[in-house]
Amino acid sequence: MKYLSILALILTLLSCGDEVVTFKTDKERYSYLLGVEIAKPFITQAPFTKMDKEKMIEGFENPVKEAELKKYYRDLELLLGQTGKSFNEKYKEQGSFAVGKINRERFDHYFDELDAKELINSDFVKKGFSDGLNKKDAVALKGLDRKKIMASFEALMNEKYQKITAGYKAEGEAFMAANQKKPGVITTASGLQYIVLKEGKGPKPGRDARVKMSYIGMNPDGSIFDQSPLGEGISFGLNEVIPGWTEGIQLMSVGTKIRLFVPQELGYAGNPPQGANIKPYSPLIFEMELMAIEKAAAPNTALQMPDPRIQ
Predict the structure, then answer these.
(1) Which of 25, 198, 217, 248 is the most buried (most CB within 10 A)?
(2) How many CB atoms within 10 Å of residue 52?
(3) Has residue 154 been placed in a domain?
(4) 74 exposure class (CB count in 10 Å sphere: 0-12, 13-18, 19+)
């Protein structure tokens, strides 16, 4: 009898570890589904499908300290290489752990930035991530409408987003209004502002020109979000970049260096590039020099506004 009791206890403990999650609130449902969505690329896209799932889950379990992030990105590069397409088995465990950590940091950063942590249940996000990787989410979500769950969550997030970004937009507009009054600042009819730092003597590019530029991109607080390689320039067509660049660069002669202040409506508005460290509706500041006019660019018919950070 004693043996049977112990066996029953062991079986009970094992089954608890594999228990199907149940939900009591909408918050728990969409938090779980968020975790499932985070896991999806790692079960559908190579080479991520080769990763150690348990190590990813372990990495995702706890918040990440900012000082640790560089190490995790290095570990990821050791696993996948610089292109992200190779897979070195030697670094499988530490690279997979790093993937979990990096995705946890991105998740936490996103909800912290929007002041929306109270909308989610982290325990259910983690459970959804684990179940998603192990393809157990279909059982937990059986009979539930995933689209409906996410629609209710998106409505809450949109409300949060509108509130936060309204503040960002007001800050940006106040910055541009104050900046316009500073000595040397020239304002165009579109609201673009610039200061000439060095006047060049070469020709000016037309709207369809292809140019070579060196630049540093900064936020209003002075933090750098992008720059051309040190001592070098990058080439691009004026029809490939944000409107503020298209207009501003046409004002420059070859050899001219300016500080360009781009209002949000001539930049990224509410959709800055992912991972670019630019707030929605933020003005952008560029110190830029026109190095050369290369050739005319082909007309651009794309509807999406491209990233000026040409690679």
Answers:
(1) 248
(2) 18
(3) no
(4) middle
215 among known catalytic residues: yes
Q: Which of 57, 120, 149, 242 is catalytic?
A: 242
- Kind of pairing, strands 193-198 and 257-262? antiparallel
Q: Are residues 48 and 116 in the same domain?
A: yes
242 is catalytic: yes
Residues 40, 120 within the same domain: yes
Confirm whether pTM is higher than 0.70.
no
In which domain, by residue range, is 89 found?
A: 19-144
Same-domain check for residues 188 and 139: no
Number of independent structural domains in the chain: 2
Among candidate residues 225, 236, 261, 281, the one labeled active-site is 225
Q: What is the pLDDT of residue 164?
A: 86
Token pair for residue 241?
């970049």
Q: What is the CATH number of the domain that holds 289?
A: 3.10.50.40
The answer to which of 165-169, 242-246, 289-293 has the lowest mean pLDDT is 165-169
Structure confidence at residue 5 as a pLDDT band (50, 70, 90): very low
Residues 260-303 have pLDDT tens digits of: 999 999 999 988 887 788 989 999 999 999 999 997 645 544 43
169 in a structural domain: no
Say if residue 197 is in the same domain as residue 246: yes
